[in-house]
Structure formats: C-alpha cells, structure tokens
Design a protein that fits this description.
Layout (H helix, E strand, L loop, with lengths): L1 H13 L5 E6 L3 E13 L3 E10 L9 E9 L4 E11 L6 E6 L6 E2 L4 H11 L2
Antiparallel strand pairs: 1-2, 2-3, 3-4, 4-5, 5-6, 5-7
C-alpha cells in the first residue's frame, strides 16, 4: 500500500518535470520512458516510469497508458507495478481505469518493442 501511495505522489509531483524520451514504436503504440526516473534497486533490477501512446483510441476511450514498471535486466523480464489508462494525449487527461496490484513477471524475449525499452532502462 505504501508503494502505491508513493507512486501516486510521484505521478502528480513529477508531471511538471517529466522528460519523456521516445524509445521505439510499433503498429499499436509509441513507447516513452521518463529518462529522469530510472531507479536501480536490488541486484539486476530497475524501476521506471513509462508512457505508451496508443495509435488508435480503444473502445473505452483510452489513448495512453501511464505505467510504473519494474525490469529484471538479467532475466529479461518485466512487470507492471501500477498503471493508469488515460483518455488524453501523453498521459494527461481523464483516468478511465487504474491497476494498483503488481502483475506477474513476464518474459519479453519475443517482444521487440518491450525488449528495446528494457535495454534502454537497463543501460541507465
């Protein structure tokens, strides 16, 4: 619960200072990482703030995803710590829904775009 509260505070505080760097894009999304908020922790892990701009508006009106992610650089895995689905460009707008429970670890070996994000985050 403390992690969720901390993440929420960071979202509101850091919007004014966010420096989003476009990492890659594919047919579905454009992937950004906030280059000033990559946090190394534990041995081979990093936490990062991601922003995914959807190329097409979803049925529920979502146009972007604000995501707090954790990356296991050694195992090439990632998981979502928290995520907001937003109706608005660059993560600014109405929050349609949110996920506050961490997801399971997922391998990203076969996902080219996620692999590029992992390589960027793990290089910091």
């Amino acid at each position: 619960m403390k992690l969720i509260y901390f993440c929420c505070l960071l979202v509101f505080y850091s919007k004014a200072f966010a420096e989003w760097r476009q990492i890659t894009k594919d047919d579905e999304k454009i992937y950004f990482v906030e280059s000033n908020f990559i946090v190394p922790h534990l041995n081979d892990r990093r936490m990062a703030k991601e922003l995914h701009e959807l190329r097409n508006i979803s049925e529920d009106g979502v146009t972007s995803l604000r995501i707090r992610s954790e990356f296991n650089c050694k195992m090439k895995e990632t998981r979502i710590l928290a995520m907001d689905k937003v109706a608005g460009e660059m993560g600014v707008g109405k929050i349609i829904s949110f996920q506050e429970e961490p997801s399971e670890w997922e391998s990203i070996n076969n996902d080219k775009s996620r692999n590029e994000v992992l390589n960027f985050v793990c290089s910091k």
